[in-house]
Design goal:
One of its GO terms (molecular function) is kinase activity. Its EC number is 2.7.3.9. This is Phosphoenolpyruvate-protein phosphotransferase. With 326 residues, the protein is of the alpha/beta class. It has an eight-stranded parallel barrel with strand order 1-2-3-4-5-6-7-8. The site of phosphoenolpyruvate (PEP) has 10 residues, from strand 2 and helix 9.
């Protein structure tokens, strides 16, 4: 089995019946790129930029963002690279943004896009750098923790301002860049059809989506046992987003940890996902599963799992099926 996994690394993740599932890498550090390339990733589905802001006094400059984006695109050509705007909050140490005040409830506080809109100049630096980098390849910009259309249009305003600033300085930049959102707030998943009309792609962030939907702090060990990707409500949320993407003809990806777990591959593809972004190390095994499965059997399992009344029931079903087949 291991031999086969290694042999097939460089082949596309195509099902037995000929459907492509794109497997991309989640990255945060340049050191991870080599492993991700060797694992057979077809581009980057989530580049976390938070590390660029940590352990320093000032936020990164436009130039730094430009160089980072350009280098990533060159390294990954011809594949797409999806860069997420900074997703920081008071749960992370970040002097550059003056984040040292403890919030009672960081997950529900000034984090992520809310923080970015509050530090508009810092966001504009990043957007200008990325818009310039996008001249060098298929760079996509992903916005974290979007809850609905008002927030999206606030960010669109920032994009327009960044473009106007670039036009003024005369620096060359891409006129068309794919902009998409992470779906990680339950409200955004439920109303994904409204969001899908206005974006180029959606990517489901199950780490946060599960935390918010099941009301369990992902950083609190005492409630970790309730963290349940196969909870019927989570499966319905994922399906809702996939259906909205399909109805509006935009790609839907999933980039939470759930994508890295081979036990869930059938369910996720069966629910309609055709792009999964994960830890590089997981790619070969998941690619192998997809190459030895058909869409029909994955859809059949997903349909059965959607009928389960509890996560325990769903888990039993999934484990039994996976053991039977692999
Ligand atoms: C997620 O929430 O699923 C996600 C991918 O983002 P992060 O883990 O960085 O919050
Ligand atoms: Mg998240």
């Amino acid at each position: 089995f291991e031999q086969r996994v290694l042999r097939e690394r460089a082949l596309p993740a195509q099902t037995e019946d000929g459907e492509n599932v794109y497997l991309r890498a989640n990255l945060a550090l340049d050191e991870e790129i080599e492993l991700a390339k060797r694992s057979g990733a077809e581009g980057v589905g989530l580049y976390r930029t938070e590390f660029m802001y940590m352990n320093r006094q000032e936020p990164p400059s436009e130039e730094e963002h430009y160089r980072m984006g350009k280098a990533l695109l060159q390294r990954w050509a011809p594949y797409p690279v999806r860069v997420r705007t900074f997703d920081l909050g008071s749960d992370k140490q970040c002097e550059a943004l003056g984040l040292n005040e403890a919030e009672a409830n960081p997950a529900m506080g000034v984090r992520s896009m809310r923080l970015a809109l509050l530090h508009r100049e810092v966001l504009l630096d990043q957007l200008r750098g990325l818009l310039r980098a996008a001249l060098h390849g298929p760079l996509q910009i992903m916005l974290p923790l979007i809850s609905g259309l008002e927030e999206l249009s606030a960010v669109r305003g920032a994009f327009n301002e960044a473009r106007a600033q670039l036009a003024e300085t005369g620096l060359p930049h891409a006129s068309e860049v794919h902009v998409g959102v992470m779906i990680e707030v339950p409200a955004a998943a439920i109303a994904a059809d409204l969001i899908a009309e206005r974006v180029d792609f959606m990517s489901i962030g199950t780490n946060d989506l599960i935390q918010y939907a099941l009301a369990i702090d992902r950083d609190n060990d005492d409630v970790n046992y309730l963290y349940e990707p196969l909870h019927p409500a989570i499966l319905r949320l994922i399906k809702t987003v996939c259906d909205a993407g399909r109805a509006h003809d935009i790609p839907v990806s999933l980039c939470g940890e759930m994508a890295s777990d081979p036990r869930y591959t059938w369910v996720l593809v069966g629910l309609g996902l055709r792009e999964l972004s994960m830890q590089a190390a997981a790619i070969p095994v998941i690619k192998n599963i997809i190459r030895s499965s058909s869409i029909d059997e994955m859809e059949a399992l997903a349909a059965q799992v959607l009928e389960c009344r509890t996560a325990t029931e769903a888990r039993r079903l999934v484990v039994r099926k996976m053991n039977e087949r692999f």
